[in-house]
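Z., the sequence and structure:
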Amino acid sequence: MRHCLGAATETIKFSPIEPTGNMCIIGKNQLTELIKSYILTVKDERTLHYLEHQNLISHEVVFTPPNYVAHLTAKSKYGRMGLSFLNAAKVHSGYVGRLALELVNLSNERQPITIRRGDPLMHIEFVKREGEASPYNGNYMFQFMSEEEISDYVGILTREFKTVFRKDDLLRAAKERVALAPSA
């Protein structure tokens, strides 16, 4: 079970490097760790033929803390091949789930493009938002997650963000989610 911001069994402590007003340089070890933590891969290998559109599911469960918004951008390797990312490249504050990545092959050479499981595909960047937390409460909360993963995250959210998330609301969202995890 892979998670974008930490294992579900660990306490999530989201502490990105924030500017202090002075310029700083971070070491290679910190930069490497940040890059690993903020790259999405796909759950299953897929090949897209010319002009074909497919929704690919992220392998990682994404959690956007309630005081952040996430933006997605495709890795330039795939952009240079002609793969285009279609959906609004934003993940709402407080969202938990796997992402449906809407892709189309627009290759000038009209060649198929294969995305392999585990290949870095998308950058996910977190931007701090101001004001009162207003977490996502739509039908895609917990999409493509197993019951075990949901249970882990409900525990984390109600423990670490108890003023923002109510257990009853999270359990209702899990029950009413649009996209269930595929059967193993």
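The chain is about 20% helix and 25% strand. The chain has one domain: 31-176.

Let me know what you think.
H.
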